[in-house]
């Protein structure tokens, strides 16, 4: 149940972005709820990515690894 409670807001946000970019017309997860789920999930700072790690990811996406496929570099650049 906990993973569904976490996954649903992630899916909503991803599809909201796709709707905003006009890749899809409607967000299929907009009105879906998890029965018996928690109203909110506590943020676990131990699993967060710190500033140093984000810099590394952005450096990778900026072209430090130009041999990587374009799709991977584009995906990393939007993180």
How many beta-strand runs?
A: 0
pLDDT averaged over residues: 78
Pairing-aware structural class of the strands and helices? mainly alpha
As for the number of domains, it is 2
What's the overall geometry? flat
Q: Please bin the fraction of helical residues.
A: 40-55%
Give me the Rg, rounded: 16 Å
Report how far apart the termini are. Answer: 27 Å
Number of helices: 3
**Percent in strands:** under 5%
**Biggest beta sheet summary:** none
Structure overview:
The chain is mainly alpha-helical and 79 residues long. The protein folds into two domains: 1-38, no CATH class; 50-79, no CATH class. Helices cover 52% and strands 0% of the residues. The protein has helices at residues 2-20, 51-64, 70-77. Helix 2 packs antiparallel against helix 3. The longest helix is centred in the N-terminal third of the chain and has 19 residues, at 2-20. It is flat, with a radius of gyration of 16 Å. The two termini are 27 Å apart.
């Amino acid at each position: 149940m906990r993973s569904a409670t976490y996954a649903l807001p992630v899916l909503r946000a991803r599809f909201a972005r796709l709707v905003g970019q006009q890749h899809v017309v409607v967000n299929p997860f907009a009105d879906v709820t998890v029965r018996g789920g928690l109203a909110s999930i506590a943020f676990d700072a131990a699993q967060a990515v710190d500033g140093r790690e984000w810099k590394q990811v952005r450096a990778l996406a900026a072209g430090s690894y130009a041999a990587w496929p374009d799709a991977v570099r584009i995906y990393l650049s939007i993180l």
